[in-house]
Amino acid sequence: MPRPLRVCFIAYRGNMACGGQGIYLYFLARELARQGVEVDVIVGPPYPDPMPFAQEVQELPNQEHWARWFTRDYGGMIPDGSPRKALSPLHLYELGASRLGFLPEPFAFSLRAFKAISKRLHQGERWDLVHDVQCLGYGVLGLQAMGLPVVTTIHHPLTVDRRASFIRDETFRDAIGTMSFYPIGMQSFVARRTDRIFTSSEESAQTIAKDFRVRPERIQNVYNGLDTDLYCPDRTVARKPNQLLCVGRASDPNKGIRNLIRSLALMPRELELVLVDNNHPDNEVFKWAREAGVYERLRVTGRIETEALVHLYRQSALTIVPSRYEGFGLPAAEAMACETPVVACRAGALPEVMDLCQGGILVDRDSPEALAQGVKDLISNPEHRMKLGQAARKRVEAHLSWREIARVTREGYLDVLAERRGFPTSTITSES
Questions:
Q1: Which of 12, 60, 191, 214 could form a disulfide with 109 if both were Cys (CB 3.0 to 4.6 A apart)?
Q2: For residue 165, what are the CA distances in angstroms to 72, 137, 175?
Q3: Helical (H) or strand (E) element with 188
């Protein structure tokens, strides 16, 4: 009987609350373990929830200098109250880089992960492959130099975030800060040298190939996964026929929230919008709503737990995804998993997701009029909405469950290992 495949995940942030990389790490590792893969995890803070399915979880501490600098927690930048410890090379680098406006975490974590894995290899541990979750620090290349195959996941390249940041910038100084913050040079350099890149859509694959200059044949689209046991319909939850839902940050121009607010003014007055976003008074969405005359029809939830988000999906008549760009479009998939139909903009990977799940309609990007008309078309036909939602749920289960994503990812691992051994492999294609 062949021994199990053994994989080591490395991720510079591991908690699910810190973004998509934490969710991806947790659920993919869990499903791979269920499929017989032996999984180890080496991770930086914020650390993940307990991972009993992993063979071992090694937490690599850092002082989170950038976050502390951003929140002006200057005292917390001294490690354990010890100024001497702060003089270690990596601490000095992180402190200086944070002060100068750079994001130091990916590089610093990659060196710590390289050191940790080197030590464990010296002690006799062995892995078939290392899976880097969107770190792409130079230390990853050290792992390859030791003979370890390395794959990486890039949901979308940081060039997308940088372009969105330029849109937000109001001064030349802001633009200089944007230029220096994102470690694009390092990540593109490392991406071109890993054994394979996993991504979540054909749109992202094309953007990675173009912006990071990666050969397209080295990129594999495996989609994003969903916890379909959590994101599911509940017949005991009554739909609110006038409630529209959107999950997106007004502070991110790519999310298209300003256009959504403008479109709300063109919709029937009985329709109300629930926006899952920061509810701080300084959130510009409140100003936009006043300007559009829809302030009384807007509810901003603030940060909510996952269970509350699922409940909102289940009770809303429609979910709207007004994004100007998406590398995947997770809220659209989450909504359709809950049998809630979607009105989405024809932007980024959203046409792929909507075509895959077939649970809603697409409208023109950057058009409040088109968005409003799309909502009117669906909101006026409850029976059609119900049929769309039910059909989409089945397709989400078939194509986007973590079980399926883990299966395709594992096949990708085996292809990489075969390539390393000089054996022919299957052609990399999109899974559908």
A1: 12
A2: 22, 22, 8
A3: helix 184-191
263 and 157, same domain (yes or no)? no
- 42/376 Cα distance (integer angstroms): 48
Q: Which residues contact 184 (CB under 8 A, 6 or more apart)?
A: 157, 158, 159, 162
Place of tokens 């052609």: 427
Strand, coil or helix: 191: helix
Is 165 inside a domain boundary?
yes
Nearest to 307, CA basis, from 412, 218, 385, 231: 231
Is residue 167 scored above 80 in pLDDT?
A: no
Q: Which of residues 76 and 125 earns the better pLDDT score?
A: 125
What's the CA gap between 115 and 213, in Å, rounded?
A: 29
In a domain, 287, yes or no: yes
β strands within 301-354, DSSP E: 316-321, 342-345
User: Which residue type occupies 50?
Assistant: P
What is each CA distance from 249 to 134, 256, 302, 321, 392, in whole angstroms?
A: 21, 9, 10, 11, 25
φ/ψ of residue 100, rounded to 5: -90, 0
Q: In the chain, count of helices (H) and strands (E)?
A: 17, 13
Number of neighbours of residue 303 by Cβ within 10 angstroms? 10
Is the model's pLDDT at 271 over the cut of 80? yes
- Rg of the chain's alpha carbons, rounded to an integer? 22
* Predicted local confidence at residue 427, as pLDDT: 43
The CATH number for 279's domain is 3.40.50.2000
Residues 312 and 201 in one domain: no
Contact at 8 Å (CB) between 110 and 186? Answer: no
